[in-house]
Amino acid sequence: MIPPWPLSLTLTLLSLTCLSIIYHTYQRLATTASRRRHLIATNNCKPIRKWRNRDPILGLDFLWASYRAFREHRALAMTKERFDVLGVMTLQMAILGFTMVVTTEPENVKCVLASEFRSYSLGDARKRMLRPLLGEGIFTTDGKEWQHSRDMLRPNFVRTQIGDVEMFENHVAHLIQAIPRDGSTVGLQDLFFGFSLDVATDLLFGESTNTLAPGFANAEVTEFVDAYGYCLQALEGVGFTEEETGYMQMIWGFLGLFLPNPKLKQQLGVVNKFVDKLVENAMKDRDARKSEPEQHPNTRYVFLHELVSQTSNKIKIRSELLNILLAGRDTTASMLSNVWFELANRPDVWRRLRREVDALDGAFPTFERLKDMKYLRAVLNESLRLHPVVPENDRQAEVDTVLPVGGGEDEKSPVFVKKGQLVHWSLYSMHRRKDLYGEDAEDFKPERWLDEGGKKGLRVGWEYLPFNGGPRICIGQQFALTEASYVTVRLMQEFPSIESRDPEPWREKLTITCTGLGGCKVALFPQRT
């Protein structure tokens, strides 16, 4: 017979262990609660308005409404409607048991992106969504890793690179050749995406994809371009049928990552193989230049060559290339598509911009001349206001913290944000606030940016953020604006007349960036000879 005391001792130890765990858990929770109460009291934080879901537990009605709005291409408008219905600029939403703060207040956005920058991160969901394609790069990391990426990339966007507009001309020539000259309808959006990809790969890799070149036929490049496009759509969770992605993947891309997608894995392999080959070739060129510099001189600036001169980590180089490729292709193409949609539908804006372009007397624009074209810049600014390329954004709180405004009945009191909570902001809604931009805030009006008629144009701060703000402000914004300016001028020089062929008003097409659903269908007419 086994003596009972060993069993009793075991049970006693287990009981003490459980009690210890319970006690320390209680202590931790009590300490956290006490600290939060102190933070709330010290900052005089007050509650914010809540969007009431019919399903108060999981918010399934919110999910369903969001899904429908996304499928109907009115998700951005729906967010704005929620602010309008409650009559507030900051509110709380609940979904799947989690709460988030949603705001259109410039001071809150400034707090997240700048003054309390270290209190927030990109969040786990975004990293899970983008890392399969982009790896560990500037758009998918925080802290020291992000700072290292930014420090490595910043020298590549200095004034000499931004001002080299001649690099655009060869690709603009291909773009012009791809546009029919008989007045037939053309979808500029697809051409702009091809153009921006050709420019981006030329700058980044030293070898352009040249997808718009006459007679283009390169199986390897075509495979890469198709795979890259597929990966972006799959990771975003949009653009596919329900059978391909599943219901939840179409609601939010990161949820779809939990669903098996063997094709995505295969296509990611195609993208990585293509870029890795370019990286290996660049490293061979680097080594050759070191051993025989006179035989291998640097003939022009190439982003990849600069990266391999700083590191030999192939995975790191590939990741940074794909991160910048995403920004270089999608951001500029979306901006151009939105700009040209407005130009096609606003003859008055087209005529005034034409006068500014005609002042060049047919000469190709230099960087200095582009900077002097104030109405052109106003057109770009206004397009980015009404149609921000990244219309919504968010950050995840890494510590308990406070937003400066949004609490209380008057929304002037601070708001408590607990660790792990998302703060989401809608640039689309903020850029259309009538108290910030006037009663005509919904109208496309480039003149609002100009000093004329004895009035000063808009002087904006945190209420206008087309390229983000704070330490993570887009390092390539001047390059993107220069590229969009050059393309617009050259196309207007070649085609002095335009006609809209879009049958509907502008509607959103949301992916990682936002562009028009209609594809910017126009007819362009060349100069009569």
Automatic annotation (TrEMBL):
CDD domains for the chain: CYP52
Keywords: Heme, Iron, Membrane, Metal-binding, Monooxygenase, Oxidoreductase, Transmembrane, Transmembrane helix
Annotated InterPro entries: Cyt_P450 (IPR001128), Cyt_P450_CS (IPR017972), Cyt_P450_E_CYP52_fungi (IPR047146), Cyt_P450_E_grp-I (IPR002401), Cyt_P450_sf (IPR036396)
SUPFAM superfamilies: Cytochrome P450
Pfam name, any one: p450
Residues at which heme binds: 474
Cofactor or coenzyme needed: heme
Coiled coil regions, renumbered to chain: none
Entry similarity comment: Belongs to the cytochrome P450 family.
Name of the protein in its database record: Cytochrome P450
Organism taxonomic ancestry: Eukaryota, Fungi, Dikarya, Ascomycota, Pezizomycotina
